[in-house]
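sry for the spam today, last one i promise. C-alpha cells for design, 155 residues
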C-alpha cells in the first residue's frame, strides 16, 4: 500500500502516520512543501527514531509525484468525495492521498480524480467547518484497504 500526503503541515500528524506506515509495511510519499523539517536532529527530538526504517519518498510537487510513479491510480480522500471509502475496492498496491490539514487536497487535483475521490462519513452539522484529524483519517482508510487485501499477510 501507499499513503500520499500532499503538503502536510503538522509534524505530529505526519509522525503518527509514519508509524502506522512502518507497522503496516506501507510506503509513505510526501509532497512538498512540508510544514516542518525532516532533518535528523528534529526527527530524533520528536521521538521519530524509527524514521530511518520507514519507506518514504519525497516529491517537489504533485506533478513530480505523478511522473515518478507512472501516473498511478490514486484514491483521493476528501470531505468533497461523493462515495464512502468503503464503497471502493482497493488493489494491493493502492495509492491513497490525503491533503494538508488546513485546506485538504486542492480542487484542481480533485477535479482530475472525481471517480476515485472518497469520503469518510461525518455528522453534517460540523462537516463544513471541521474534519477528522489527518492521522485518524489515514488509519481509517488504510486499514479498510488492508482488510480488503487480507491485511497483506501481516499476521
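last one done:
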Amino acid at each position: 500500500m501507499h499513503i500520499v500526503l500532499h503538503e502536510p503541515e503538522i509534524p505530529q500528524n505526519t509522525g503518527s502516520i509514519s508509524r502506522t506506515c512502518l507497522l503496516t509495511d506501507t510506503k509513505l510519499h510526501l509532497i512538498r512543501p512540508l510544514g516542518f523539517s525532516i532533518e535528523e536532529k528534529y526527527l530524533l527530538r520528536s521521538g521519530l527514531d524509527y524514521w530511518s526504517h520507514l519507506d518514504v519518498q519525497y516529491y517537489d510537487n504533485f506533478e513530480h509525484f505523478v511522473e515518478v510513479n507512472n501516473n498511478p491510480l490514486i484514491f483521493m480522500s476528501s470531505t468533497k468525495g461523493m462515495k464512502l471509502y468503503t464503497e471502493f475496492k482497493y488493489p494491493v498496491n493502492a495509492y491513497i492521498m490525503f491533503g494538508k490539514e488546513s485546506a485538504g487536497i486542492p480542487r484542481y487535483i480533485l477535479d482530475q480524480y472525481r471517480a476515485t475521490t472518497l469520503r469518510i462519513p461525518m455528522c453534517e452539522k460540523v462537516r463544513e467547518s471541521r474534519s477528522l484529524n489527518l492521522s485518524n483519517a489515514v488509519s481509517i482508510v488504510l486499514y479498510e484497504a488492508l482488510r480488503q487485501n487480507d491485511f497483506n499477510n501481516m499476521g
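The chain is about 30% helix and 15% strand. ok im logging off now
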